[in-house]
Design brief:
Rossmann fold; SIR2/SIRT2 'Small Domain'; 2 domains; 6-stranded parallel sheet; 3-stranded antiparallel sheet; elongated; binds ligand BJW; binds zinc ion
Length: 250
């Protein structure tokens, strides 16, 4: 891909960069996005219908099993070149913040350090009533595993529709978005709030906004640069184009 020279020069000068990622960044690691159709057992369900407190109240075992199935898929997934390029960017820029809506942990596995997980982590499980975290649980009974403290149902420590985001993660994400020189929006459909508002906040504060996606989104018209393609291809090429051997890492 030929990158606009202004983008290359913005990035070489940038002191602070923030990147917001969504399910698309993990698609090349073999994980399905939310708006993709699901396969096999889960083909009849829409992921966005399962990710809600109402779905858990209606059919807790169904929701638990969906997360258990995804946890298994994530266990064998590995970061792809898009994750690694973002980790590389962190080593090239004075202050880099990785803001992710993903719960799969692949950014940390790729070496990203300053990571803000807005929607929690699928690897953590907590009680749906008293909030205590569980270290171990079984996935093979007919029922949702129970909390050792109060006996109520366990649930994944992720953020469902209608639930508040973890305050410290959101505050850090808003701050990073408002002070950055360049803001990346990568592999997200940009429709789920409050994450979807972050690129607009960055733009309002004067950042250059770069979108990387297979297809246009509600952000595209407002973005300064739209790099259409797979993040696992576009991001490594961009990192190579910006930080060649004449620009050593920090
Ligand atoms: C590629 C690619 C490749 C593919 N390379 N690209 C109106 C205004 C404001 C807010 C609302 C509103 N109406 C309702 C709300 C609230 C609601 C919301 O935003 N709803 C919208 C649907 C309208 N938001 C909430 O409820 C949030 N909480 C909240 O607002 O709390 C307020 C509150 C305060 C105080 C007390 C109480 C409440 C919470 C949102 C939580 C979202 N949770 C989920 C599940 C997380 C756990 C899990 O993983 O199961 O988060 S839903 C799902 O959507 C998941 C994702 O993180 C999130 C975003 O999806 P994402 O990542 O963008 O994925 P996709 O699939 O949508 O897109 C993939 C993209 O990648 C596509 O564009 C592809 O083209 C692209 N792509 N392959 C590059 N290789
Ligand atoms: Zn409990």
């Amino acid at each position: 891909m030929i990158f606009p020279p202004e983008l290359i020069s913005f990035l070489r000068k940038a002191e602070r960069v923030a990147a917001l990622t969504g399910a698309g960044v993990s698609q090349e690691s073999g994980l399905r996005t939310f708006r993709d159709s699901q396969s096999g057992l889960w083909a009849q369900y829409k992921p966005t219908d399962l990710a809600s407190p109402e779905a858990f109240a209606r059919d807790p075992k169904l929701v638990w099993d969906w997360y258990a199935w995804r946890r298994e898929a994530i266990k064998s997934a590995r970061p792809n070149p898009g994750h690694y390029a973002l980790a590389e960017m962190e080593s090239r820029v004075a202050e880099f913040s990785l803001i992710t809506q993903n719960v799969d942990g692949l950014h940390r596995m790729a070496g990203s350090k300053r990571v803000h997980e807005l929607h929690g982590s699928i690897q953590r499980v907590r009680c749906s009533v008293c909030g205590r975290y569980a270290e171990t649980w079984g996935d093979d009974s007919d029922q949702v595993p129970a909390c050792e403290n109060c006996g109520e149902m366990l649930r994944p420590d992720v953020v469902w529709f209608g639930e508040p985001l973890p305050r410290s993660e959101l505050e850090a994400a808003v701050k990073a978005s408002c002070v950055c020189d360049v803001f990346f929006s990568v592999g997200t459909s940009g429709i789920v709030q409050p994450a979807a508002a972050l690129p607009f906040a960055a733009k309002n504060k004067g950042a250059a906004v770069v979108e990387v996606n297979l297809e246009p989104t509600p952000l595209t018209e407002k973005a300064d640069f739209f790099l259409q393609g797979k993040s696992g291809e576009v991001l490594p090429e961009l990192v190579n184009a910006v930080w060649d051997s004449t620009h050593p890492s920090r």
